[in-house]
Amino acid sequence: MSVLTERRITSLALLLIAAALLSQTFGQSYSGLGAFSPMFFPQIVLGFWLFVATLDLGAELRQRHSMTRPRIVRVILIALACVTFLLLMTRIGFFLAAVPFSVFALLVLGLRTPVPIVLVGVGVPAALVALFNHLLKLPLPSSPWAWWF
Description:
Elements: H1 6-25, H2 40-62, H3 72-92, H4 94-108, H5 114-135
Helix pairs in contact: 1-2, 3-4, 4-5
């Protein structure tokens, strides 16, 4: 049995990222905003992410895998893309940073069909902007060039 597999490394990385991000949402004080402070929904989403990542890692540790070599380059590329996305998001806005990140991540993960890449790469960030900026009124970082994304 191989202890180090790509799925286990990815599951652990997702768990650690979720825990680190969730830890950053506590201790933020926004007076007078009540339960619907800017940290309310991110805490729910990150808490769910942490829960699912814990279940995923537990399931991966219980499975027996054949001796396959982990594709660590894929994990490193996705991790570097996440860091780049987070840095760019504050400078060029969520949507303009999320679209190239989504497309890059789909390509690295092996998706090669253009229509799903474009639909997911543009559709998911657009849906998140519509949800948070326009429906929940909890704005994501916006572009310096256009207020609506």
